[in-house]
Amino acid sequence: MKARESELAGVVKLIFQPAEEGGAGADRMCNEGALHSPDVEQIFGLHVWPGVTTGPSRVTSASSSRQPAPSKSLSRGK
Q1: Which of 20, 35, 53, 55 has a beta carbon 3.0–4.6 Å from 40's, enabling a disulfide?
Q2: Nearest C-alpha neighbor of 58 from the set 48, 66, 68
Q3: Is the pTM of this model over 0.85?
Q4: Cβ-contact 15, 29 below 8 angstroms
Q5: Residue 78 — pLDDT band, cuts 50, 70, 90?
Q6: Cα–Cα distance list, 74 to 17, 26, 38, 71, 78 (Å)
Q7: Which position has the higher pLDDT, 72 or 30?
Q8: With 60 as the cut, is the pLDDT of residue 69 above it?
Q9: Concatenated DSSP letters of the chain
Q10: How far apart are CA 36 and CA 20, in angstroms?
């Protein structure tokens, strides 16, 4: 992302959530203002898996985590 910074419109904020499995980390981060200054307009979550090779990402139509939520996404690239 840093290499393509000039191509990005707006602000990109990377958030790393502690205590992800139990959910308490997200509540605390929200309560402490992680989604503000600057405000977050869109957010996408990724689950880091130590056994997955660096570089590629995986998308599945099936559940792959404990509490999946339905979503739609659109990706455009060159």
Answers
A1: 35
A2: 48
A3: no
A4: yes
A5: low
A6: 24, 25, 24, 10, 14
A7: 30
A8: no
A9: -GGGGGG--S-------TTTTTSHHHHHHHHTTTTTTTTPS--------TTSPSS-----SS--SSS-----------
A10: 20
